[in-house]
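Our consortium's second objective concerns turning raw sequence data into structural hypotheses that experimental partners can test. To show how far this objective has progressed, the report includes one record in full. It was chosen at random from the queue rather than selected for favorable results. The single chain below, 365 residues long, was entered without modification.
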Amino acid sequence: MSAESERFRSRNERLRTWLLMAGVSLGAIIALSLSVLFSWGNEDITGGGGGGRSEAEKAAREAFHSPPGSCLTWELPDAGDAKKVGCEQPHLFEVFGVVDVAPQYPPGVPSPDLAQWRKLGEERCGETAETYLGKPLDPKGKLSIGVLHPSEQEWADGDRQLRCGLQWAAPGGQLQKLTGKAADEDQSNVWQVGTCLALTGKTVGDPIDCAQPHAYEIIGLLDLADKFDGDEVPSEDDQKTWLDTECSKIAEEYTGGANLTEKKLILTWDLREAESWEAGSTKVNCKVGAKLEDGSGLAPVTGSLHSDGQAPKTSTATPEPPPTSAVPADPNAGNEPPADNHEQVPPSGVESPLPPDTPQPPPGT
């Protein structure tokens, strides 16, 4: 088995890699927001026999040892076809730093466990992200920090380098493809109009075909900066008032005047907090979903609400990445419904009207 395949290997011999995701603001780690586990079968690197296999291994080796500024992508479930691509091409990971932890872990010391990898990611990757971007990294935004670490065999052979990268993960943990350099990316955690997000349990998952049961359908995209000027984030009340009006207009046009209340649907939208505003994240989504009758979470919705019966074709540009399984961060709270039976799903930290310990739809989805 190649070093690249070994990188994805776990104690139970399943191929996997840990991507440890964190948020930073003003150069400091806020929290590890998500631990994404890629868990696949024992496939070897593919690419044909003989020379093809060798070329695939060579490309993967180069990708796994890329310098800062490199963008990586892959399609195969085992990442055996991982390769470097120009950042102007769709990719899953942009390397922004290489960290050597040899001083902390001399020869013979066991490889860190997951908790220790997380701590290293906090201490060693977060501090360089803002420098690389040239601006704050929105702790609730589209981009998150990922860490690639040596495999057990590489660790035993003396490899002590971590690769810190930036990536975009959906609410369920599935990596989404980015196009362009991270420094040029609008960090607003928004989706294209017409995107539907899966229902996972009672809360939000990854993008899915709108014909399948889903949690939300994205019906609109608004920029708060079009209404609110200045460096200070508008108050939640001011955001709610404006979004209630504008999202209602969008819903009327998108659905062809459908009565959402009769359909037992709710119109929701995102709010932005100060940390996001300071990072330039001013865009928000309008979206439609439904709640379970007992208020314990989201209910499934099937089919598009668009007036022609299907989501706009222009909204499905995000390529579907390889499947992942994930352990999502603590779901974020909702908010009391305002007038006219609309509801918001604001960022975390807002008191929830739902009973304690019930799944909550996260923000920015």
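The partners drew two points from this record. Residues 1-50, 313-365 have pLDDT under 50 and may be disordered. Helices lie at 3-7, 51-64, 114-133, 152-156, 236-255, 274-278. Both points have been shared with the crystallography group to help prioritize constructs.
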